[in-house]
Structure formats: C-alpha cells, structure tokens
Amino acid sequence: MEDYIYVSSDDDEWDNQQYNNDDDDDDDDDDGEFLDGFTEIEQERNGISEKGPSCKVIRKETLLAAQKEDLQRVMDLLSLKEHHARSLLIHYRWEVDKVFAVLVERGTEKLYAEVGVTLEGKDEHTSTLPTSEVTCQICFEDVPVEKTTVMDCNHIFCNECWTTHFIVKINEGQSKQVTCMAQKCNVICDEGNIRDLVTAKDPALAEKFDRFLLESYIDDNKRVKWCPSVPHCGNAIRIEDDEYCCEVECACGVQFCFNCLSEAHSPCSCLMWKLWMKKCKNDGKTVTWISENAKHCPKCHNAVEKNGGCNLVRCRCGQPFCWLCGGATGLEHTWSSIRGHTCGSYKEAEEEKTTTVRNDLLRYTHYYERYMVHRDSLEAEANMKQKLNFEVLKLEAGELQSKDFSWVENGCNRLLQLRRILSCSYPVSFYVFGQALFKDEMTPKEREIKKNLFENLQQQLEINVERLSMFLEEPFADYPEDKLLETRMKIITLSVLTDNLCKELYDCIDNDLLLPLQQATHTIAHYRSEGVAKASELPN
Question: What is the mean pLDDT of residues 105-130?
C-alpha cells in the first residue's frame, strides 16, 4: 500500500520536496504548472462524481410547475385527463417511467383497473333522464336530477351524500384517492367534482383538499423529500436519478442524507448511524461523566468517583487502587508514594481479566471520544471561515502578483468535509468490527486484517487533516510573498493528498468491509471530491 502520510511541517522538509527548486524563476514556473495540475486533478474528479446524483430545489412557487411537468408527460402519452393521470402517478409514487413500464408490460386495461381509473363515458341516460327526480341509493331520498352527480363509473348519488362522503375522506387524510361510494366500486372520483361540491359546503376544507393533492407530489414521491431543516425552510429536494442513498444540500444550507433524512453521515450507513445516534443519546452523557470523574475498580469493575485529594482510593467492595493508573494496591502509603506500587506506562487490561460489560463500555468510550473530538473540531473550524475571509481581504488589498486566493476557501471547505467524514468513520469501525451487527460475518483473522487496513487509512487521513488545519490557522496574510506561496503549496498539496486518502477510505468501507457482508441493508453515499451535492433551482 502506498504511504500517504505527510511526514513533516518543518520548512527544511518542505524545501526538499520534488516541486521545490533552487532557482527562483523556475519556482514560479513550476508553481504555475503545479496549480494547473491540481486543477486538472480536481476537474477529473468532478467529472467522475458528477455521474452521481443531481438534485433540484422545489420551492412553494415551483411545486405546481414540477407536478404539472410529470402530469403532462402522462397526459400526453396516454391521452388522459389530469385527474386520471394524477391517480396513476400517486399509485406508482410519481414514477413516470414505472407507469410507462407497467403500460408496456400489462397493457392499458390492467393498468387502469389496478389503479381504479375508468375511461368509460357516462351513460346517455344519466344525462337525459326521463324523470326530473332520482332516488339516491345512499339516503333513499328522491332528489332532483340537477342535485345529483354522476362519476366516471356511472354511479349517481345525490350531492348531499357525495359531499358528506368527500368531507369524511378529506378529514381522514384519504383525499388523494377518494373512491366511489358504491359497494365494491374502486373507481377514483373526479377531483373536479370533489372540489366543486366541498367548496359549496366548506371552502376552507376544499383548500385543504387542493393542498393535499399538491403536496402528494412530495409526500408520495420516492424522488422528492422535504428538507429536514429546523425551523423548516419550506423547500423540498428532488433527485433526478435513481440513486436514493446520497447526500444533498438544500438551498437553505442544510446538508442531509436523502435516504434517511438524518444529517449527512457517510461513510456510515443509515442503519449504523441510526443505531449510533440512539446509543449516543442513551450512553453518551454517561460515558462523558465517567471518563471525566470516575475510574473502574480493578476487582469488581464498577465505576468509582474520588471525593478527596488522596490518589489511593478504595472501592466499596474493599479493593484499594491507584487513582492515577487504576492498578490494584495495598492500603499502606505516604504522601508521596504507595508501598509496593509504582505507576508505569499504561498497559491494556487482558481480556480474560475484565468483564464483558466493562470491555463493551471501554470500547464504546474509545470510539465515542474520538467521534466527539472531530465533531468539536468541526464546530471550531466552521467558525474559522470568517477569519479566513478576513485574511483573503488583506491579501487582495496587498500588492501581490497573484490575485487568485480561491485556494483558501477550497482548503477550508475540504477541511470541514474531512472533519465530518472522520467523525462518522468511528461509528463504522465500532459496528463493523464489533459483535452487535456482524458477529458471524468474518473470521477472527479476517477481522484483524480488515481492521488493520481500515485503521491505517483512517490514521493517515487524520494525520494529514490535522496538518491541513494547522496551515489554515497560520496568519499567512502577514507573510512575505515567498512564504505565502510556500503556504499555498502546502495547503493545495494536502488538499489533493487528503482527497486521495478519503477516496481510498470510502473504497475500503464499500468494497472491503460492506460488500462481502451477507446483509444487504448497509449502503453508503458515494464520496464526492467537491463535497455534498448542492441542489440547483428548479425553473418556474
């Protein structure tokens, strides 16, 4: 395996890198060539990742247009009315291609029958009845013909019964596909008739009915989901292809997993993330308190809190131990030492000497603490953006030959992306190499080999992310031009380097860890060099 660890940040080490040159003029030329190469690398990666999901923002103003677009496609192909096309699309969750596929496979008759759409014209006698009154088969009242309504299925009832039926269905939340009142009739009622009759009785409820029909494009559509922002921004996101396990960014700035609507969590699968969030909610505060205030007794393994200044503590089981190292001791001690005991380097407890509960807690604590370290760093570095913007303004005001400082923003965006990825990589390690989900999926030898491979990549990425963070925090706006160019080179190099490492980490998780598993429930969003896919505006 190639070693991507960036060795040193010392100036002497950087001077020995291959892109540096003793001749100052050649430095400038090489610098430009290097930057061009970096651009080509980024463009190449962008080209690959652009094959991933593309997405659109659907706002309140564009929701109707988005719905009309799909309705029109079905109406044009099948020569249907709008309410018939809507019934088909709601049934097939607004998958236009699925409607067309069923049409080809089963034919129009079975397609319409399954959904409850009938194209049979109304019988002539329903429009030219010989009598002026009709007996409604629901209330058994004789009512004038003009106070009745006939649906596509040719069932005719009085307007009062129809209206009551529609109001009940709308209030029950079944307004998207209201069927005929006749027994064993599954034909979908004309939404125009529903709207007219309900409006006469309850205009507010009619508006609610129209809103349900409009929002069905989001609520019943596999490719469209509401943005989970709090407070809600009012936007929805539509995926333009069939890649539902992906991460997107709404126009409001919220990044989330399209599959489970949680925050962006790749390279962690949705199921792992759900279990991790639940575990953190239940155990996170306990782990934090224990790690800060307590130690485990070496005999009974219960957590012990120290309530005095002496570092020789005694558990309620009677076992004395050293607070500094956790080792069992005797009771004799002075202010400076404990008899027969010295604190050496930390030694990992042997598995056979610890209980399962303690091992599980220690293991979870290990991953939780590292997960939180990167989360905290992400929050701190997000606030660094304002400082970097100020640095760029100072650079632009200076008399420098180069006026392109996009490498600052690109480096910061890469850093934030990598912090999130690193934090989410620890739940992956916790579950894949633990016993909760994949106990019998790997032999102990396979588990050890894959764990070493994964942790090696993870460690390399961590080392270089910390270096990237260090260089971005430097006051480079005050540097002379030659040192500024050197800092720029370091940031660009680390950006490319960490991008390669991140791609390898995702490939390792996807192909080496998850692909061989028997459980097919674990898929992760593909890595994108440019970050989470940003949704573009949908035209009106």
Answer: 73
Distance CA 45, CA 38 (A): 11
Measuring CA to CA, which residue among 222, 227, 224 is closest to residue 264?
227
Q: What is the pTM of this model?
A: 0.73
> Is residue 463 classed as helix, strand or coil in its secondary structure?
helix
* Alpha-carbon gap, residue 426 to 413, rounded angstroms: 21
Residue 223, classified by CB atoms within 10 Å of its CB into exposed (0-12), middle (13-18) or buried (19+), is buried
Q: How far is CA 355 from CA 302, 349, 444, in A?
A: 10, 11, 20
At residue 130, the pLDDT reads 55
What is d(CA 488, CA 527) in angstroms, rounded to the nearest whole number?
25
Q: Whose CA is closest to 256, among 509, 55, 515, 426?
A: 55
Report residue 447 CA to chain centroid gap.
27
In the Cβ-directed half-sphere of 474, how many Cα atoms lie within 13 Å? 20
Q: How far apart are CA 204 and CA 195, in angstroms?
A: 11
Please state, in angstroms and rounded to a whole number, the distance separating the CA atoms of residues 440 and 434.
10
Helix (H) or strand (E) holding 321: strand 320-322
The whole-number pLDDT of residue 398 equals 80
Q: Amino acid letter at 229?
A: S
Q: Is the dihedral of CA 88, 92, 93, 98 positive or negative?
A: negative
Mean pLDDT, residues 214-219 taken together: 90
Q: Is 189 a catalytic residue?
A: no
Tokens, residue 507: 């490939």
Residue 82: C-alpha distances to residues 107, 210, 337, 491 (Å): 20, 14, 87, 56
pLDDT in tens, 311-368: 778 888 888 887 777 777 776 765 555 666 666 544 454 444 445 667 788 888 899 9
- Check 310, 315, 322, 502 and give the catalytic one: 310
